[in-house]
Design brief:
Strands 1-2-3-4-5-6-7 form a seven-stranded parallel β-sheet. The longest helix has 16 residues. The protein contains three helices and seven strands; from the N terminus they run αβββββββαα. It is α/β, with parallel strands linked by helices. It folds into two domains: about 100 residues, Ribonuclease Inhibitor (Leucine-rich repeat, LRR (right-handed beta-alpha superhelix)); about 70 residues, no CATH class. α2 runs antiparallel to α3. The protein is about 20% helix and about 10% strand.
Amino acid sequence: MARDEAYRQAEERIEEARRKGAKELNLGGMALTEVPEAIVNLAQLEVLILSDNQLIALPKAIANLTQLQGLYLSNNQLTALPKAIANLTQLQRLFLSCNRLTALPEAIFHLTQLKCLSLSHNELTDIPAAITNLTQLQRIMFSKNKLTHIPAALGFLTKLQEIEISNNPLNPGLAAAYEQGTEAVLEYLRAKTDA
């Protein structure tokens, strides 16, 4: 793959972060089309910002960032995530809004420490029930997708405080509940499991 100026600058930032033992690395807004493999050397990272680039994929090396708590990937061109992302067991915040995801990667369901999951502005048509594995979720954002429903079992995630599902072709019952707020959505979902 061609190594352009943005890639070289990203490599320099990665090397500087390695030397300093940095906990956070911002590679956002650099017009990157790929993430340098040198990212593998930053096992101490807790926050990685890759938003506002032109990424179509993440390297499998991302799996080495086992201390990562925040991963920001919004405003890219991602259509999938590597299975290796399941290794990020400390991840609490995952932002994937404004990408090209048509399905939720199964690896996400292994990220059991997730508290905030943003998937707005994608092309999702379904949210698998396995999302309920994410028992620590407090906030989920699915706005501007192609969803008509969400899994009823979400109603039983006890820590969930906010569900954002605006601008989806929701079924009438769910849409009416959403207009009344998150608690009404949770009640609607719990009622669906009783039916």
